[in-house]
Amino acid sequence: MARDLPKYTVPSLTPEDGAKVAEILQGRLNALNDLALTLKHIHWNVVGPHFIAVHEMLDPQVDAVRLMVDAIAERIATLGVAPVGTPGALVKARTWDDYSIGRASTTEHLGALDEVYVGVITDHREAAAATEELDTVTNDLLVGHLHELELFHWFVRAHLESSGGALSTDGESTEEGAAQAAASAARTAP
């Protein structure tokens, strides 16, 4: 998204660099807003065995992701650019499909959520790498978020892993494929 250069930015960055960092962060703002909504959607629509464990595991993740959203939006503003957090702008700018699983089992949702986290974390790492030389403060913010995102991903994967270490979603690259693989593995587990 091409934007006008900010009138000011943080000391030691040029307006061009401030705008570039803000653009990278806007992508992360969109992704994390989407993640918070997706986590809440799963929280409301998960059913079956382990319902309460998964239902209650997700709310702290929602809260933490919302804090990440706020920190990123405030960093964008600090860089002299207006953060855009409207639903229409998010939908227009996103490069991924909407979460497609409705009311479903805990295993199906966790399988799909595994893929969601893979996408968010991969893109967050790319953003961290892109800001490493450009702006150490933004880079530090993104790296801190990665710590929490990867921890939450581990929480999800622990539900999908066999005692032998096999991940039921291994080899899947779509939410629906991962949901089906996780459900199939759960049906055949001893």
TrEMBL record:
SUPFAM superfamilies: Ferritin-like. Residues 23-161 form the Ferritin/DPS domain. The keyword Chloroplast does not apply. Keywords: DNA-binding. Residues 165-190 are annotated as: Disordered. The keyword DNA-binding applies. Coiled coil: none annotated. CDD domains: DPS. One of its GO terms (molecular function) is DNA binding. It comes from the Bacteria. Residues 178-190 have a biased composition (Low complexity). Belongs to the Dps family. This is Starvation-inducible DNA-binding protein.
